[in-house]
Amino acid sequence: MTLPAGYTKAEWASVVRKGRKLVKQKASIQFALGDLVIDALVGHPRGHGEVGQVIEILAHQIGVNVGTLRRYYEIAMQWPEEKRRPDVCYTVHEELAFVRSRYILIRKDPYDPFSKENRWTVNEAQRVGRRAPGTPTNREERLAKTRRLLHSDEDAAEAVKEMITRPEVRSRVVADPRARHLIREAQYEHWQEVDRELEAEAELAPAEDAEEVEEAVEAAAPGVSYQEAPLEILRLFGSFASFFVALQRIIPQIHSQDYTEETKAAVLDNVHKARMLLDWCESAITTGRTDMDKALARLLEDEEGE
Predict the structure, then answer these.
(1) Using CA atoms, how far apart are residues 191 and 195, in angstroms rounded to an integer?
(2) What is the largest CA-CA distance in the chain?
(3) Burial of 196 by CB count in 10 Å (0-12 exposed, 13-18 middle, 19+ buried)?
(4) Is the pTM of this model over 0.85?
């Protein structure tokens, strides 16, 4: 028997015995109400809505929900009194009610991995009935329940972002080749979308801006064959050229004496970020490593958080 913290075996066993006794009492009441409907229908027609009428009127007059009383009746019909087990709770009978071999199955107690006992539980009855158990006891069931709870992409994405903050989770994810491939694929798709947005913005820009950027691209890579260069390299040149042209226009308009210290600090902070990104690019070209260092990762996380 599994014990909660702070309880002796004898103390907890006493609590469990009382609880099981109460469950039996509840089960007997639920079956008794279902049997009451069965008995009330004996000798009366039931082929033209009479059952529903009897249940509805009786439920209102004894103060029970109509749907609840109908369910008690349906389960009692599936379990003749001589086939029921008084030491097994009503909910187990309910879960097994439409399993064909229920009369044979109910005789033998299955092993319950949660309590480590041989006894019928709702969990085990749900497994037999091929339903998802309410309390998962192994990894497969836990993952299945998680998938059901996180059926929306928004919820799943938030859960992943939260889980990835755990060092051990990160380590296990990046150690998996398939996970690494999916992450790289997602990054590629993300930057493709960014490129499409930038291209759309460029189409809306004045013609002279586009010409100036094109000239800057040619100046930035005079020895590169544009027919042979990889697409990502051409995109890099385009990004550099846009960056150069924009800064050449904006910087002469700066009037440092008119800015607050907070504004200057914000600009310098972005200069620092840009420099770190350029260092990352240089490292990727010279060493072939595209993973960012921890300082840059924290910097970009802070930027996204803002």
Answers:
(1) 6
(2) 100
(3) exposed
(4) no
